[in-house]
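Problem 12. The chain below contains 358 residues. Write out its predicted structure in token notation.
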Amino acid sequence: MGEPPDPPEGTPEGVPRGGDDEYRSVVFDETFVRAARLQEFSAQERITDHTPAVRRLPAARRSGLSRQALVLVLLIAVAFGTAVYMGVRHPYRTPAAERPAEPLRMTVVPLAPEGAVPGARDVGQLYAHSPAARFRAGAEGVPLPPTRRTANFSDDQVVAALLTAKDYVVRSALDPAVVTGGETRAVRVLLDSGQQEQFDESIDRPAADGRHAVTGWLVRFDPARVRLADPHIRVRGTLQAAEADSATLEVTTDHTVVYALRPAGVGRDAQASLFTVRRELRFRFDREDLRLHQAELVVSHVQAGPQSCALDPAPRLHPLLAGQRAQHTAPPGTNPYAPDTTTPALCGTLAEAAQPRL
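Solution.
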């Protein structure tokens, strides 16, 4: 251990310096005595006043410490006031309770051709002579629009909503594995958890009831009947984002998707034909959906052709291939008195201008 330090006012006279004095550590110099909190009364004071032998001196004032404490209290008050102000004024605060997911409402309308479906062996020739000549392939055909924040959502939140909606369009309509009847998990994971049960019911038990058509969620063909003649699916359309309320963003998408198809089990010598799907989707996002990269799909309106109105489009779409014609069978009638009546079948006509002109 080091030697004890000298007193603040130096070593008293008569006391040797350094470690020569073995009693140096217990010597009380004048500085030490003046700093003591207890002070002995004089003999005269003790005789006259009968007071105790010692008295307590008043504590030294520590004005510096008081000032520091005051500054600390002021800083805490300012920080607390700022936090309260930001909590009241901050535009991105989370609502007290999120709205539960709504079930998807869907409409799937087959479009029947007026004549035989045009076909060609060269897929490029088909596209070049069709309205899809300038469409782009895959995700490149689904560009994001310029983004701008809303009153209650930041730029990043709007971009997140648009990216999720784009991913849904790409996975549900442009993924060859999905459209040819393969796995559907890539689409399911993008849905709000409150809608995944409805999605599963649609896949397992499809029905044309406006709630459980597979083709309301995604594009699907029967791989036993058709195959893709070109894996690069053409698409063009738009995405738009808008604020529905202070807790909800909505994104609407409108895309026309064109598939080149051939009959299943045939070679490249078989003629290919084009099949067109127009999809209008409306997504809803709360802040939890934005955080999880999920969406609530609330409306799906699909028109697809050429196909026959005689077949149920709920489990899958039924493309008419090159040279085939539609069966002009009227849809079944609707009995308004029947308690189990579901959404009536709808059917449209595919305009000649929508077909390749070969």
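Discussion. Residues 63-89 form the longest helix (27 residues). Students who got a different answer should revisit the alignment rule from Section 12.3.
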